[in-house]
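Re: beginner question about structure tokens

> Can someone show what the tokenized structure looks like for a real chain? I only ever see the sequence side.

Sure, here's an example I had lying around. Input first:
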Amino acid sequence: MCINPSPLQGISRSFMHWISPYFKQNSTNTMTFDTVNNNMMTVIGPPQNGCGWRIRWSRNYGCLSGNLVLRLGIHRTLDKHRGCVNTVSFNADGSILVSGSDDRMIMLWDWELGLVKQSFHSGHMNNVFQAKFMPYTDDRTMVTCAADGEVRLAQLKDGRHVATKALARHEGRAHKIAIEPGSPHILYSCGEDGLVHHFDLRTQTATKLFKCKAFKDKSDYMPIVHLHSIAIDPMNPHRFAVAGSDEYARVYDIRKCRWDGKACGDPADCFCPSHLIGDEQVGITGLAFSNQSELLASYTIERIYLFSKDQGLGADPDSATPTSAEDPNTGNEQQQQQVYTGHRNCATVKGVSFFGPNCEYVTSGSDCGRVFIWKKADGELLRVMEGDKHVVNCIESNPFATMLASCGIEKDIKIWIPNSKEPASPVNIDEVCTSFLLRFCMPTVS
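And the corresponding structure tokens:
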């Protein structure tokens, strides 16, 4: 029987090419790959009579081997844009990469071959900040947002024709879009005007849900929080989080919102490390939910923090006690947030994301031009990889392959796969910090 699992359709050839050096071939013409977590994938082949490789998984299908992470290296550089590349994302099966840039162009890549399948002008008048496929639309419907404040719809027609139209406009830059998991119709946007829009593509209408207002302690000088990021909980799509120019990640429940924009201003919960409450210097540039409903937040001039659902401060953090690390009900020390350190987030609006089918790893770019990868569970820094001559802003993982795409200030996209014959050496964080200081803090000699 010819078996081509859907996760590998369109990418099975390169998939086999990447991992074949790490397989053990035996006399039964099978190749077995053992991960460090004792998960096993057996590939039966070679392909015959038009049939592809046959895949048999055992134990936990979805665990990403740390050995593969340690072997990540640049597989290909995609370099057709004429400006900084601000966004990369994948279609549902991982076969197409979409990118957006300061050149206002959208490009659809066959990343395996390094070829542009299609490109078109976004219709935006300024830098494109995000571009995503809508699910279950046969990769024919996309949404974008940009520095001009617009949220736009792009529909790919037959004959390579693309129709674009504006859905809504923020008063200020629109940084991020969040798509309801599994929905071909529903999405949200946030912007520096503090506004959160809700869209239904069936009617192509936008509803202004609310403006994110600062809490009382900052309302005099920061009445509106300038939003940089929005994310939806994949395990509970009614919950979404927003964050921006203050220290709080706010989580809302769409079921508690009115559709006239006059309510929903109060969050269901808020998250912030206790030592950052009241810090007027920090903000949040990136958010991501894990498949366990954990919330990841990347702070400016600070670190990345992972919050579990029970670490919230409630709807009114002004009433929280930031100096206390004890649970007032039990007197026991509360569990602290997991922290990820070593990167630098000061110069740009950076994203943050999980990596691996079980969100086993955390990834971020840095002002030093590197890609950082940590173990989610304990915060151990596994990899620091050169990804840009200046700054890495965006890292996205392929939904089915052990692969990352990264972009930043340079005009290209880096594709990372486990192609190294030897695993990387342990990260020396002192060397990373010293290298950063030498690169950015030493005076130039004339």
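Each token stands for a local structural state, so reading them left to right follows the chain. The domain at 73-423 is CATH 2.130.10.10 (Methylamine Dehydrogenase; Chain H).
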